[in-house]
């Protein structure tokens, strides 16, 4: 797989370089020739992608892979022998078509080679083999270009020819390796794949995307990213030529892009793990586009390489974040169609921009600007990439504004909080259930409303777990006695915060997390927001410090929805017939608690629902049901039951 991917990347570099060589010194012709290579590489996937996997599954996988690799060997070896545009494009289309059948056969074969508990590791190696070979291919191409520079004056070989021959040999070697893997199944696969054409995928995906603001913003951003990437890919060879560099520099620039992508994909999620994925997607897309603007302006190759690495890193972070969000934000029932929709749009947008960008670059042509004794020359490739950068910035900003959570908190505040380690609760682990917490001051009716919500959800067929803090577990019952009994007396505010965090840690570990993993709806009367309000604002500690303790204790588990029953402190206290240790606190304490709840809701209105608790029990319940029914997972389940 590594050698095959190596051949793919080397073939891409070689065919684009050969396209420019065949164009000679004609700038417009070179732009169109290179773009043509990319277009013909993408077109087979647009038309054959939906059915290639089905066809590949009906043949002996091992034999199919061997035949495909031999065909790719012959096609790549024939390109420098024939040496004209028509066969370059024809062979490229045929290679891509053959690859479409080779890839699903390979993917289906991997599970037969490793035990199930090693499959995830095998898939990680697959990604490394596929994308990690790109920088290697770029280095090999650069070395071939340097070693073969003297061959340009002969009538037999050019550096691009040598690269294509090496590429062809890599596929022949891969065919031999697959031939030696006797343990691959030889019988036809048991195919359960259903073939959908692209039009159907687009239609089904569009129906879901149109109704979801986050997903529509995400896909809009991904399309913008690939639009900008298409301009860079299609114009990279002529851009390098404009910098007075050759094939070796093109190979290095190509490798620098993938080095940046690898850094962004591997390190980005770790460095920016505390940030909201919704925020980091739009922000990283915008930053990468800004660096694309800088790339278009520079005329120095070394500086361009540095910019490309940084650009690629933020693009890689945006790429991995976008696809992760698609997997997390989209319900399982529509995930396949949504991915098909996205992949089809990406291919179509890439084909479009690869066709348009060279035309724009060719139309702009070469321009020299003089100011006093200083002059600088920019060509069509630089102007077009600058335009693509502007589009990328606009798309990134729009995606950020459309998808960002916590709209009342600036990105700069998030950055400052991240350095202090206070953003841990924003991107918690995923689960298949729904987590709802009730918060509010004393006497606000949380217990009553949480029970009524449980009864409603069970009436529509949901499995519901109702709990409370403290006291949701056996350990919690004992801690509740200590924390709320008047006999306990004064407890150090920090000790009190730690005791609540200890109860919460055990509560999540033993009850809440297992229920959520089982797909249940969990309703809790109080959660971490109560500690932030009571032990933070109420006890005049730093709310952010208390929040950080609870986020660590809960392994960053955040409610899907937090319902705050808002009530003036004096009204709530007046409803009580008896008072525990916390309820005995002065009115000013309870006012601080109420204000902190409202502050939390103002920061993140998507997660919080503030309801006036002075209304009747029935009105409050109706408002809660309306808000809960709008949650995506519950909304989908309710719609199914209605049918």
Total of DSSP H or I helical runs spanning 4+ residues:
24
The largest beta-sheet arranges its strands as 4-5-3-6-7
Assign the CATH class of the domain at 434-642: Alpha Beta
Principal-axis shape: elongated
Q: What is the β-strand count?
A: 7
Structural class: mainly alpha
CATH architecture of the domain at 434-642: 3-Layer(aba) Sandwich
Structural write-up:
The chain is mainly alpha-helical and 643 residues long. The protein has 24 helices and seven strands. Among the domains are: 1-189, MFS general substrate transporter like domains (Growth Hormone, Chain: A), CATH 1.20.1250.20; 434-642, Rossmann fold, CATH 3.40.50. It has helices spanning 2-23, 27-57, 61-82, 85-109, 119-131, 133-147, 159-180, 198-210, 213-242, 247-271, 277-297, 301-329, 332-364, 380-403, 411-419, 446-459, 474-484, 493-517, 528-538, 543-553, 569-574, 587-603, 617-629, 632-642; strands at 367-371, 374-378, 434-440, 464-468, 521-525, 561-566, 608-612. The strands form two sheets. The chain has a five-stranded parallel sheet, with helices on both faces. Strands 1-2 form a two-stranded antiparallel sheet. A hairpin with a 2-residue loop joins β1 and β2 (374-378). α9 (213-242) runs antiparallel to α10. The radius of gyration is 30 Å and the shape is elongated.
């Amino acid at each position: 797989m590594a050698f095959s991917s190596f051949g793919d990347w080397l073939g891409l570099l070689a065919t684009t370089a050969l396209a420019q060589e065949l164009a000679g010194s004609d700038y417009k012709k070179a732009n169109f020739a290179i773009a043509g290579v990319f277009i013909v590489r993408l077109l087979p996937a647009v038309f054959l992608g939906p059915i290639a996997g089905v066809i590949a599954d009906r043949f002996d996988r091992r034999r199919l892979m061997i035949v495909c690799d031999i065909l790719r060997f012959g096609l790549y070896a024939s390109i420098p022998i024939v040496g004209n545009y028509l066969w370059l494009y024809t062979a490229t289309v045929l290679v891509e078509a053959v690859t479409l059948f080779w890839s699903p056969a390979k993917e289906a074969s991997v599970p037969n080679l490793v035990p199930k508990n090693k499959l995830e590791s095998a898939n990680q190696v697959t990604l490394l083999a596929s994308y990690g070979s790109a920088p290697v291919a770029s280095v090999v191409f650069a070395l071939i270009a340097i070693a073969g520079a003297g061959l340009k004056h002969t009538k037999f070989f050019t550096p691009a020819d040598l690269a294509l021959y090496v590429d062809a040999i890599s596929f022949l070697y891969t065919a031999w390796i697959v031939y030696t893997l006797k343990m691959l199944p030889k019988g036809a696969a048991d195919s359960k794949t259903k073939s959908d054409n692209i039009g159907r995928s687009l239609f089904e995906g569009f129906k879901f995307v149109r109704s979801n603001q986050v997903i529509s913003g995400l896909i809009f951003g991904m399309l913008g990213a690939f639009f900008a990437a298409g301009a860079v890919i299609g114009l990279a060879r002529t851009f390098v030529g404009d910098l007075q560099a050759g094939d070796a520099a093109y190979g290095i620039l190509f490798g620098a892009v993938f080095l940046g992508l690898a850094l962004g994909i591997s390190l980005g999620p770790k460095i920016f793990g505390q940030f909201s994925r919704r925020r980091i997607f739009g922000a990283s897309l915008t930053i990468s586009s800004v660096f694309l603007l800088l790339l278009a302006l520079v005329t120095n190759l070394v500086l361009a390489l540095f910019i490309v690495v940084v650009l690629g890193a933020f693009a890689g972070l945006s790429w991995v974040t976008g696809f992760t969000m698609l997997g997390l934000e989209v319900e399982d029932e529509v995930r396949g169609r949504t991915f098909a929709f996205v992949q089809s749009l990406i291919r179509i947008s890439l084909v479009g921009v690869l066709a348009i960008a060279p035309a724009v670059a060719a139309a702009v042509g070469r321009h020299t600007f003089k100011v006093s004794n200083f002059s600088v020359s920019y060509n069509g490739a630089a102007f077009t990439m600058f335009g693509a950068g502007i589009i990328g910035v606009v798309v990134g900003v729009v995606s950020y504004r459309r998808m960002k959570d916590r709209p009342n908190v600036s990105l700069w505040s998030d950055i400052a909080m991240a350095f202090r380690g206070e953003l841990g609760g924003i991107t918690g682990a995923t689960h298949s259930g729904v987590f709802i917490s009730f918060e509010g001051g004393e006497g606000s009716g949380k217990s009553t409303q949480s029970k009524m919500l449980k009864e409603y959800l069970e009436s529509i067929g949901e499995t519901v777990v109702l709990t409370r803090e403290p006291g949701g577990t056996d350990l919690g019952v004992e801690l509740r006695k200590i924390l709320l009994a008047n006999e306990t007396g004064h407890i150090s505010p920090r000790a009190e915060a730690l005791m609540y965090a200890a109860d919460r840690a055990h509560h999540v570990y033993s009850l809440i997390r297992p229920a959520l993993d089982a797909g249940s709806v969990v309703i809790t009367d109080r959660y971490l927001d109560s500690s932030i309000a009571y032990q933070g604002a109420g006890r005049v500690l730093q709310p952010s410090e208390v929040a950080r303790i609870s986020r660590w204790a809960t392994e960053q588990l955040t409610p899907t929805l937090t319902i705050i029953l808002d009530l003036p402190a004096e009204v709530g206290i007046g409803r009580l017939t008896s008072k525990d240790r916390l309820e005995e606190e002065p009115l000013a304490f309870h006012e601080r608690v109420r204000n902190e709840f409202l502050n939390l809701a103002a920061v993140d209105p998507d997660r919080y629902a503030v309801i006036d608790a002075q209304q009747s029990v029935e009105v409050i319940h109706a408002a809660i049901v309306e808000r809960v029914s709008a949650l995506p997972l519950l909304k989908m389940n309710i719609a199914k039951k209605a049918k």
